[in-house]
C-alpha cells in the first residue's frame, strides 16, 4: 500500500488525465454534450449546485471520486461524526456536528451522550435571549438592554458577525448589535461611542478566555461601563460570557450563572452554531437560531448519507483538489450575489485557510503537494468593478463559486427598468457564461473592432466556476451553506491527509508579541535582542510615539 498521496493509483491516473485535459475547452465540452448543463448538477439541503462549467469530463469526475475513496474520505467522515479523536495534535474529538443534532439524538463522547448538554445550553440561551429581546433583562439602572456588543476574535467573531449580517432581514431591529474584535482601540471606541452604557450588554466570547485581543477589549469595555455606572455590581447585569473556561470567566468578574458553555470538541472556527452564536440568537430569536441549526443538520445528513456522485461538499472539494493540485491554481474566489452575505468570504477565509493551511501530514511528514488555497472574494456586483478584470483576462487561473438566490428579501422595482433582483441575477448568469466561453478574436473582429485593438478585447474563456442557487436566503439555508463549506474543507483536509482542526501556525506570532509588549512600556525600554530590522523598527516606534 503506497503511503503518500501522490503514489495512489487515482492520483497517478489524474496526473495522466490532466495531460489530456489541460487544453480541453469548456466550449467544446458543451458543444459535444447538449445536455451537459442539465446533467452536471446536484442538490442537497435546499442548495442547487451547477458544476457543469468546470474543466471536467465524466472520466475526470470518476477519477476524482476514486481519489476521495482511496484517501479514505468516507471512513474519515464517519470517524468525525462518531466522535473519534481525529484532532490528533490536540487529542480531541471534532464534533461541531453534534451542536446541531435535534433534541433526542445520541452522540457519544467518552461514554457520554453530549446532545442533552447541547440542548441544555441552547435552552438557557433561549431563555436569556427572550428576556433581553422582551426587555425583561434590565441593565443595572433598570433600563432595558438596547445594545449588544460581542467581543471576540477569529472564530469567536467572524461566524457571528457574518451570520448576524446575513440574517439582518430577520433581526429584531430595535436591538443594535455590534462586534468588536481588533485589539486596535479604535474598534472598541468607534463601536461604543454612541451607546448608552446603561443600555448596553457585552458578550465576551472566547473559547479559551485567554486571547490577548479579547481580554484587552473586555477589560476596556468593563472600564467604559464602570466609568459611567460607578458600581462594580453593574458588571453582572452588563456582561455575559461564552467560553469553555469557567475559571477564567469567574476571575474576570463575570458570574458563571451568566456564562454559556461549550466544549473542547468544538473548534473555534466551527463554533458559530454553539453558544458563540449568542449574539445571532439575540438578533433573530431562538426560533430563527433553531432554523439555522436545522439547516446545518440537513447538510450534515446530506454529507453523511448522499452517494459521493451527488454529494455537494464532496463534489466541491474534489473539484477544488483538481484545480489546486493538477492545474496549480493558487486561489479560489467565493462570490456571493447577495449584499447580506458581505462577510461570507471573510468568514470562509478563516474556516478554510486556518484549517488546511498546513505543511505536514497527520503523522508529521512534510507534504510534497499543494494544500489549502487562498480563499478570497466579496459580494457581486461590486467585485465586478474591482477585480473581475484579472479573473477574466489575467494570467492566473482562479476557480470561482458564484452564490445566488432566486427570490430576493428586498423586492425593489426600478422606476423605469427591470427590478433590482433581475439586474443582480443577470450578472451571475452573465459572469459564469463569460468566464466559461469567453470571446474569440474572430468574434471581436466581426464586430468591426480595429485589428490593432482586437487582442485587448479577446476573452480566452475556459475559466471554471461553480454556481450555487437557493430559493431564498433564510436562516435554514444559511446553516446549510455554512455546513456545505465546513464539509468541503473537511474533505480536502482528508484527501491531503492533514489535521484540519489545529492551528499551530498562529502561535509563534502570539508568543513573540507577548515578548515585545513589555519592551514597549514607556519608561522601561529594555535593551533589544531581536534581529537588526525588528530592533530598528521598535526603536523608531519608541522614539516617535
Ligand atoms: O487565531 C487563533 C484562534 O485560536 C482561532 O482558532 C480562534 O477562533 C481564535 O483564535 C479565538 O480564540 P478564542 O475563542 O479562544 O478567544
Automatic annotation (TrEMBL):
Domain of life: Bacteria
UniProt keyword annotations, A-Z: Cytoplasm, Gluconeogenesis, Glycolysis, Isomerase
Main location: cytoplasm
Pfam families per record: PGI (PF00342)
EC number of the protein: 5.3.1.9
Catalytic reactions on record: alpha-D-glucose 6-phosphate = beta-D-fructose 6-phosphate
Alphabetical list of Gene3D superfamilies matching this protein: 1.10.1390.10, Glucose-6-phosphate isomerase like protein, domain 1
Recorded GO MF terms: glucose-6-phosphate isomerase activity
Pathway: Carbohydrate biosynthesis; gluconeogenesis; Carbohydrate degradation; glycolysis; D-glyceraldehyde 3-phosphate and glycerone phosphate from D-glucose: step 2/4
Active site: 354, 385, 510
Cell compartment(s), UniProt: Cytoplasm
Family: Belongs to the GPI family.
Function: Catalyzes the reversible isomerization of glucose-6-phosphate to fructose-6-phosphate.
PANTHER family to which the protein is assigned, alphabetical: GLUCOSE-6-PHOSPHATE ISOMERASE
Stored NCBIfam families: PRK00179.1
Identification of the protein by name: Glucose-6-phosphate isomerase
Organism: Deinococcus arenicola
